[in-house]
């Protein structure tokens, strides 16, 4: 599809905004509609759009499969790691109340439940992005067999 | 408001029937995307913006791309015409009638006294006000905190499905290809 | 069958219609991709079933208005008298804008909130929220659904490679060695 200049240019214009929107949905998910699942899917769709228009090789340079592969597991690790952290701090698994701290309160650094939800959603976002992108790679990388 | 809902539901039903009727795969996949968008709109009206959001992104975006790439890999293979059997229609009608009969006892739409709304008491919305210290989105709080174990499980399921797709579809000769390319570059 | 029960149950019937359409596609169509699409339609109808059950009449999305939420945050951490006044003010504003709320009650509540500050929680619960629980369940189900759909499609691709067809009956014939 990279032969059509209009598609190419519009895609290049749109992708930064899609990515920005994904980040907004990810980090504003506690306040408005959104969260890790949605943000992951939107982020992945930006990558997939790039792959559709500029080809699989181009997108593999931007997001190397070897990195995406690691990210699939990294997200779950962040999620479970948050649980392990709360246990290490003396709480129950995924009991975010023990994450309460009083560092820089005037900067509104997330703390307690807020911090826990932030970390967990981050983990979900990473895994969903990586899995969706990896599934696209798997389908797009296969040749049709007659 | 009601008119919009009825128009939406009518479109939803028509799209579903069109998907069932159409034979050309490409058109069916496009209609599936439309179906997802319409159901996302209905979810929006039903006060579930988070779900509508996800359905629009997943159903109309990623799922359409996946279906199209599958179609590209398997060919547009039209269905082989066969003589029509009435058995599926009969089974569907009987099942549907049974389900409709089952709904007659269900709590009415929007009823605040439905069991879903009464339990748990105090509701999650009320509880989150005290527990979450002012996180406005109750859905996120519920997803990540009250049901944190559940979401951890779901994330793991997504990971597992991703790994399974890779195991099924990744070519064994991918590494060989790359090394062959490298060798080719050296010789050229 | 009264008009009232039709108005109260139509959502289930729409969902059942969609569900049965998906079921019909799975049963009647022999193309494997078409079957996966049928399952998808079935799945979406289940999402809709859950979401319609979570809806409450005159309700709104389960997102607490930011002003109220921020005040709750302050109230929870303990604030000065000025903070309490702000709480009351926010509650008053909110009470005036709240839909379907008897104004007298709202003003009484708002007055209470001004005098006590911590009474705010009561004022905010006067907004009717739809149930967040079905949303949460379906939210995760949608993403898991697309992952499993991808798995099904991957299997279809492999079947096409080995059998040369995605037609169910043709595959069965090939398996029988015909």
Automatic annotation (TrEMBL), chain A:
Residue stretches making up the Na+/H+ antiporter MnhB subunit-related protein domain: 6-133
Indicate where this protein is primarily found. membrane
What does the record say about its membrane topology?
A: Multi-pass membrane protein
Subcellular location(s) of the protein = Cell membrane
Q: Which UniProt keywords apply?
A: Cell membrane, Membrane, Transmembrane, Transmembrane helix
Q: Which superkingdom heads the taxonomic lineage of this protein's source?
A: Bacteria
Keyword Cell membrane included in the entry's annotation: yes
Report the transmembrane regions from the record.
9-27, 39-59, 71-94, 114-140
Q: Which GO terms describe its cellular component?
A: plasma membrane
Q: What's the family?
A: Belongs to the CPA3 antiporters (TC 2.A.63) subunit B family.
Name the PANTHER family on file.
Answer: NA(+)/H(+) ANTIPORTER SUBUNIT B, NA(+)_H(+) ANTIPORTER SUBUNIT B
According to UniProt, the name of this protein is: Multicomponent Na+:H+ antiporter subunit B
Q: In which organism is this protein found?
A: Aporhodopirellula rubra
The record lists the lineage as: Bacteria, Pseudomonadati, Planctomycetota, Planctomycetia, Pirellulales
UniProtKB/TrEMBL annotation, chain B:
Q: Which UniProt keywords apply?
A: Cell membrane, Membrane, Transmembrane, Transmembrane helix, Transport
Source species: Aporhodopirellula rubra
List membrane-spanning regions.
Answer: 51-74, 86-104, 151-169
Q: What does UniProt list as this organism's lineage?
A: Bacteria, Pseudomonadati, Planctomycetota, Planctomycetia, Pirellulales
State the membrane topology.
Multi-pass membrane protein
InterPro entries from the UniProt entry: CPA3_Na-H_Antiporter_A, MrpA_C/MbhD, MrpA_C/MbhE
Specify the protein name: Multicomponent Na+:H+ antiporter subunit B
Q: Which domain of life is it from?
A: Bacteria
Location in the cell: Cell membrane
Specify the MrpA C-terminal/MbhD domain's residue ranges.
10-74
UniProt-listed NCBIfam families: PRK12504.1
Q: What is its main location?
A: membrane
TrEMBL record, chain C:
Location relative to the cell: Cell membrane
Q: What's the protein called, per UniProt?
A: Multicomponent Na+:H+ antiporter subunit C
Parts of the chain that traverse the membrane: 12-28, 35-53, 136-157
What are the entry keywords?
Cell membrane, Membrane, Transmembrane, Transmembrane helix
Pfam families with a match to the protein in the record: Oxidored_q2 (PF00420)
Specify whether Transmembrane is a keyword of the entry.
yes
The record's comment on protein family reads: Belongs to the CPA3 antiporters (TC 2.A.63) subunit C family.
Signal peptide start and end residues: none
One GO CC annotation: plasma membrane
Q: How does it sit in the membrane?
A: Multi-pass membrane protein
Q: Which domain of life is it from?
A: Bacteria
Transmembrane as a keyword of this entry, yes or no, is yes
């Amino acid at each position: 599809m990279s032969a059509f200049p209009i598609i190419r240019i519009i895609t290049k214009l749109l992708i930064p905004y899609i990515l920005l929107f994904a980040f907004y949905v990810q980090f504003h998910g506690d306040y408005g509609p959104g969260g890790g699942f949605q943000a992951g899917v939107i982020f992945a769709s930006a990558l997939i759009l790039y792959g559709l228009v500029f080809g699989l090789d181009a997108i593999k340079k931007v997001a190397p499969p070897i990195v995406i592969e690691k990210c699939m597991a990294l997200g779950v690790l962040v999620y479970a790691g948050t649980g392990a952290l709360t246990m290490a701090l003396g709480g129950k698994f995924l009991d975010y109340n023990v994450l309460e701290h009083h560092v820089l309160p005037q900067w509104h650094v997330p703390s307690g439940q807020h911090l826990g939800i932030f970390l967990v959603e981050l983990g979900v976002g990473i895994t969903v992005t990586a899995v969706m992108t990896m599934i696209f790679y798997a389908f797009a990388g296969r040749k049709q067999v007659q | 408001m009601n008119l919009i809902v009825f128009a939406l539901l009518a479109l939803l039903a028509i799209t579903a029937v069109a998907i069932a009727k159409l034979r050309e795969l490409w058109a069916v996949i496009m209609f599936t995307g439309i179906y997802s968008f319409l159901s996302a709109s209905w979810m929006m009206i039903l006060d579930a913006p988070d779900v509508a959001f996800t359905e629009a992104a997943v159903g109309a975006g990623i799922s359409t791309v996946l279906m199209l790439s599958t179609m590209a890999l398997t060919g547009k293979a039209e269905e082989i015409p066969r003589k029509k059997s009435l058995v599926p229609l009969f089974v569907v009608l009987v099942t549907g009638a049974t389900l409709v009969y089952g709904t007659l006892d269900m709590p009415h739409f929007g009823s605040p006294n439905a069991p879903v709304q009464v339990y748990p008491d105090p509701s999650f919305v009320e509880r989150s006000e005290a527990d979450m210290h002012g996180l406005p989105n109750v859905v996120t709080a519920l997803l990540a905190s009250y049901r944190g174990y559940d979401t951890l499980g779901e994330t793991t399921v997504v990971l597992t499905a991703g790994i399974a797709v890779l195991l099924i579809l990744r070519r064994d000769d991918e590494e060989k290809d790359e090394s062959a390319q490298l060798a080719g570059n050296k010789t050229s | 069958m009264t008009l009232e029960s039709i108005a109260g149950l139509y959502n289930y019937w729409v969902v059942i219609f969609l569900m049965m359409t998906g079921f019909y596609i799975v049963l009647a169509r022999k193309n494997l991709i078409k079957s996966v699409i049928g399952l998808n339609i079935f799945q979406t109808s289940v999402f809709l079933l859950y979401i319609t059950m979570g809806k409450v009449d005159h309700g709104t999305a389960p997102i607490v208005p930011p002003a109220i939420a921020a005040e709750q945050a302050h109230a929870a951490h303990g604030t000065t008298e000025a903070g309490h006044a702000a709480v009351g003010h926010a509650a008053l504003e909110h009470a005036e804008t709240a839909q379907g709320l008897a104004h007298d009650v709202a003003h009484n509540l708002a007055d209470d909130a001004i005098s006590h500050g911590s009474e705010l929680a009561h004022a905010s619960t006067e907004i009717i929220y739809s149930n967040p629980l079905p949303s949460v369940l379906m939210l995760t189900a949608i993403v898991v659904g697309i992952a499993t759909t991808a798995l099904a499609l991957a299997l279809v691709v492999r079947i096409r490679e080995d059998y040369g067809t995605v037609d169910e009956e043709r595959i069965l014939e090939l398996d029988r060695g015909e």
